Amino acid sequence: MSRPTPDLPTALSFGLLLVLAGLLLWPLIGGGAAPSPYLIGALLLARLGLQIWRAQRDERLKRPTSWAVDLLLIALIFWVASNQ
Predict the structure, then answer these.
(1) Which one-letter DSSP state was computed for residue 59?
(2) What CA–CA distance (Å, rounded) separates 40 from 23?
């Protein structure tokens, strides 16, 4: 019996999470420079868009409070980046 494969938005969301994890862990593991906060914010914004796209396809995934918290965190990242 085979396991069902995730749909395209889910796979893209997991892919973005892997990229974000790699970017955030690389300075700790490899000693490289930290990634740009703008890049991290943009990737998080893209992931939020994917979450909203997934919610349009499946009603059970609608979480507007979670989206609002994500938007606040993304705005905070951009605000801190612009003040550096």
Answers:
(1) G
(2) 8
Asked if residues 12 and 48 have their Cβ atoms less than 8 Å apart, the reply is: no
**Is 21 within 8 Å of 61 (Cβ atoms)?**
no
d(CA 70, CA 61): 15
Cβ neighbours of residue 24 closer than 8 Å, sequence gap 6 or more: 35, 40
In this prediction, residue 58 carries a pLDDT of 86
Rounded mean pLDDT of the chain? 91
**Tens digit of pLDDT for each residue in 14-50?**
999 999 999 999 999 998 888 999 999 999 999 999 9
* DSSP string for residues in 15-47: HHHHHHHHHHHHHHHH--PPPPHHHHHHHHHHH
Q: Could you give phi then psi for residue 49, rounded to 5 degrees? A: -60, -40
